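Reviewer 2 asked us to include a model.

Predict the structure of this chain.
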Amino acid sequence: MKYNFYTNQFGVDKKGLHLLRSKQKFIPYSNIDSITLKRGRVVKNWLLLLLFGLCCLLFASYSIFTLNVLSGSEFLFSLQAEKTIAPIVSAFIGVGAVLMALQERDIMIVRRKGKKAVLLMSQLIKQHQTDDFIAFISQRLGYKKVFVSPDFDKENKATPVPRKTRRA
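Predicted model (structure tokens):
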């Protein structure tokens, strides 16, 4: 199918928005209440993920502390694998969970009939198509339904820098 704009998550044509990774594959423009383009969290339950990551880090630090304090000076000589693997693994999981929870990217939030879809805009930004995308969506939905936050694409990757022309 030919889309005017597409990423790996969605495609946009004259009829509506095609969600490529969802159960409801097509949303006509008449069903869309609003579209918001902003910088936001990628993960839906980021607070829960952050709490999980902090708990993993707390467990890892407590385990290493008790292992170090209870062993005393014999810690270096009697290092047991089963006592050190669990804190190390939980520390890696905790760091990964905290990094994922705090990650912010440029996203598009599509609201329709009480439902909300969060879609990443990174591919359109890399292709320098966000200005054209905003104009296309605004023409289809109306300018009152499209909201662009000032922090969206603040590096201004959407508009390519003009190349200097050489004169002979």
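The chain has two domains: 5-42+106-148, 46-101. The first helix runs from residue 46 to 71. We have added this to the supplementary material.
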